[in-house]
Every structure is written in C-alpha cells, then in structure tokens.
Amino acid sequence: MDLQARFDIGIVVATMVGSGLQQAVRSVFAQQFGGRMQILIGVDKWHGERALVDALIAEAPSHVAITVMDLGYSTSARHGGVYPGHDSGALKTILSFAANSRFVACLDDDNWYAPDHVATMLKAISGKAWAFSLRHFVDEDTGEIICADTWESLGPGRGLYAETEGGFVDTNCYLLDALLCSDAFPEWTVTRVDGATGGDRQVLKRIADRPWGTNDKASVFCRVRLAGMDPYVLWQFRRAGVDLARFIPADKIPGEEAWRQCAEYDRTQAR
C-alpha cells in the first residue's frame, strides 16, 4: 500500500495493548466503507503481548494500513512521563498530527464502532470543520449494551452539561478536520486537572463555535462501570429504563431517598 497517498480517514488508537484492543481495531476492519483507512496505534505502555499487535497488522484488509508508534517509554505522568493526560500522555496529540489524512478520529482501545460509523461520519463532516456521533453505553465487564446515551454526549449546547460546559462530546465520537481544527489536538495532552481526563471537554470548548455536523446515530460503543458512579448519573440510567441491579451489586445501588433527591433536583431545574 502506498502510505504517502492520503487516507480518507485516520483513526488514532492510544493503548497499553489490553484485551479490548482487538475488538476496537477489528471494528474498523469491519466498516462498511471501501475507502482508504489508516489506524495509528500508539503504545503508551506494554501490558499485552507484542504478538497481538503483529497479528492485527497481518489481519488488516487491503484498504486499511496500520501505523504503530512505540517510543519505548510512556509520555503519561502516571507512568513516569511528562504530560498529565491520564489516558495516553501526549500520544493522541502526536498521532493526530501524524495521521496522513485530513480527517482524524480517536478510538479508545476498550471501545468500538458500529459498521456504518466511518461512512456516516465522513458524510456528516462534509463542508464542516468537525462532526460527532452519538453513543451507546456498554458494561465494562460483560460487553453487554446498557442503553443509548440520551443525556450526556449530545453535542454543543445539549445534555446535562449544556449549562456548565456548553455541552459534551465523548472522545470516541469526534471526527476533526485536521486543517480546520489542528489547534485542538494539544487539548488531548494537557488536561485541565493533573492526572485526570478532560481532553474531550477542552476540545469541545476549542471548536464548538466552528461549523459542525452529526451523523445523528449512536454508532460508537463505550464501556463504562456503573458501580461507583455519582447517584445523579445513575439516576439518568434509571430514568432510561435500565435495571441497575443487572450491573451493580445490590448494596451499591442508591436508596429511595437518593432517587427522591434526584427527582426533586430535576423538578427544580425545570422550574
């Protein structure tokens, strides 16, 4: 494959080579899209076997190229590196600039795409600076789909964070035009709270006022662990019809008083 010829899309995957990497990368292989795709795998720290990455390279379809970056050290402060970005240090930023495509997406190694994600997102970004998809929540341990996210990652000016953050878009749901949004790439690296996440919110603040599109589809599957979540967030799952007892031990589920307070807060906000 001619690597110098531009790809239709570059997909950045920062990883420690965990068990979810195969599903993430194979979901790109399975896209209903015949154009040229580049997967840029950045290894923050080796937890899995190198043979796993080699096998994925060998398995890649003819229209998909895999570029691997292994610096030999972690750029993340939690592993001794310089940068506070919790998930991957500077890797997402470096790989976003390195992608040989005008259109760049990020896919965490424990999440995956629906088969029509790439095709619908490239259509959504046509004539725009950036685009986003919606998402499904998936149980971290079992991989079972919990429900669609109808309250959080809904784009600019929508959802639970509309007032406090101007909205929210999950990292995995973005598609950025590298020529129109490259100034947002460093936001993946220097997060607002040391040792924490937040790059996704910072990216949105940087680009929210630029023309955007959406495929209006929950075409990304994001793993979450419900146990330990804030009660008000769990309240959203409950309102969406999720049986929390399927995913959380009974003694970890908030009681009726917590739900009453959540409901009262919603009524107050509505007023």
Oligomer: single chain
CATH overall fold name of the domain at 9-133 and 170-218: Spore Coat Polysaccharide Biosynthesis Protein SpsA, Chain A
Helix-strand category: alpha/beta
Helix content: 25-40%
The largest sheet, given as strand count, sense and whether it forms a barrel, is: 9 strands, mixed
Name the CATH superfamily classification of the domain at 9-133 and 170-218.
Spore Coat Polysaccharide Biosynthesis Protein SpsA, Chain A
Which architecture of the domain at 9-133 and 170-218 does the CATH hierarchy give at level 2?
Alpha-Beta Complex
Overall CATH class of the domain at 9-133 and 170-218: Alpha Beta
Mean pLDDT: 93
Reading the helices and strands in chain order gives: EHEHEHEEHEEEHEEHHEHH
Ranges where pLDDT stays below 50 over 5 or more residues in a row are none
How many beta-strand elements? Answer: 11
Q: What's the tally of helices?
A: 9
Backbone shape:
globular
How much β-strand is present in the residues?
15-25%
Our measurement of the CA-to-CA distance between the termini, rounded to an integer number of angstroms, reads: 59 Å
Notes on the protein architecture:
The protein is α/β, with parallel strands linked by helices. The chain has a domain at 9-133 and 170-218: Spore Coat Polysaccharide Biosynthesis Protein SpsA, Chain A, CATH 3.90.550. It is 28% helix and 23% strand. The strands form two sheets. Strands 1, 2, 3, 4, 5, 6, 7, 10 and 11 form a nine-stranded mixed sheet that branches. The chain has a two-stranded antiparallel sheet with strand order 8-9. The mean pLDDT is 93.
